[in-house]
From TrEMBL:
Residues 1-317 form the GH18 domain. The lineage of its organism: Eukaryota, Viridiplantae, Chlorophyta, core chlorophytes, Chlorophyceae. Pfam families: Glyco_hydro_18 (PF00704). It comes from the Eukaryota. GO terms for cellular component: extracellular space. GO terms for biological process: oligosaccharide catabolic process. Belongs to the glycosyl hydrolase 18 family. Keywords: Glycosidase, Hydrolase. GO terms for molecular function: chitin binding; hydrolase activity, hydrolyzing O-glycosyl compounds. PANTHER family: DI-N-ACETYLCHITOBIASE. The keyword Oxidoreductase does not apply. This is GH18 domain-containing protein.
Length: 325
């Protein structure tokens, strides 16, 4: 990792003491993953026990805070939504009794209204936590229009979503723009006439896969790490060049699966497209930027030079937000 570009590292399990120590040696905070909090939201007695367990983990493994990533549906103003806010608030209070500088972050969807049924108390969560990590990706989780492959995080939708958080009165200093260091690989389907897709096709129709009441979703594709996508491109198996979508401000390409012969279309982010997203966060005065996830880049010591250069470029454009040469 380029520790110089990191302030907080989340989702580090207790078993990875080596990562916790390396992060602390670099001056980076390490946040515990809150994991499944469904019972802690629903049951007050269980909540107290759950919070005590998180504090004990933080004490035992020197965590600097906790990250919540609850993504189940909740109706606006419901007990579930309000109890989630209470859980975050009570956990923050307990964590700060152990460490006054503990950092509490909450992952939230790319937009606060009608997003996969997750209508939480975002204003309350922002008040209870230090930061909201806006997951500005997986924007094809519910496709109500044409069932076709598309960008994972179109720039206009990113702007629309974050503006909605700002319109709620949430300070940009509370917001982290989360970006994707992975992409989606979609098998292309036959059209309505039964015609098989050609290797250079622009519109990749995908199999309709239902998600939370929506008939089409990105579940028709498979998530692919940036390092694997770039390895595929380096192999020369792509049947189109890297095509830039001027609306989404994201690239895509096609390839043919060697075993099945199926045409695939891959949408992902590159240093060029991420530069635009980091610049947006900078210009809006956000607290920071973050990525899901660091394991998507090639960090192994034995990696070939081209892969190492690609990883370096991905870290390099983070400076669009953080500054530096």
């Amino acid at each position: 990792y380029d520790w110089s570009q990191i302030t907080d590292l989340a989702w580090v399990p207790p078993q990875r003491v080596d990562v916790i120590c390396a992060a602390h040696a670099a001056g980076v905070r390490v946040l515990l993953n809150a994991d499944d909090v469904s019972l802690a939201i629903a049951d007050t007695d269980f909540r107290r026990k759950w919070i005590a367990k998180q504090v004990d983990l933080a004490r035992s493994y020197w965590y600097d805070g906790i990250n919540f990533d609850h993504e189940l549906p909740a109706k606006m103003g419901s007990d579930l939504a309000l109890n989630y806010t209470a859980l975050v608030r009570d956990t923050a209070t307990a964590m700060r009794q152990l460490n006054p500088h503990a950092k509490i972050s909450v992952d939230v969807p790319w937009a606060p209204f009608g997003n996969d049924g997750r209508d939480y108390d975002y204003v309350g969560l922002a008040a209870a936590a230090d930061r909201l990590f806006v997951m500005s990706y997986d924007m094809q989780a519910q496709i109500f229009g044409r069932c076709a492959a598309a960008a994972n995080s179109p720039l206009p939708q990113i702007l629309k979503g974050v503006r909605q958080y700002l319109d709620l009165g949430i300070s940009p200093s509370k917001l982290i723009l989360g970006v994707a260091w992975y992409g989606y690989d979609y098998p292309c389907e036959r059209d309505e006439h039964g015609t098989a897709p050609e290797a250079h096709i622009d519109v990749c129709l995908i199999r309709p896969v239902e998600y939370r009441g929506c008939p089409c979703s990105d579940a028709a594709g498979a998530q692919r790490d940036y390092k694997d996508i770039m390895a595929l491109l380096r192999s020369g198996r792509n049947t189109t060049s890297l095509v830039w979508d001027p609306l989404a401000e994201s690239p895509r390409f096609n390839y043919v699966d060697e075993k099945s012969g199926a045409v695939h279309q891959v949408w992902f982010e590159t240093p060029e497209s991420l530069t635009l997203r980091y610049a947006l966060a900078r210009d809006l005065g956000f607290r920071g930027v973050g990525a899901w996830n660091m394991g998507s880049l090639e960090h192994s010591e034995g990696a070939e030079p081209a892969a190492r250069a690609e990883t370096s470029a991905m870290w390099g454009v983070v400076k669009t937000f953080t500054g530096g040469p």
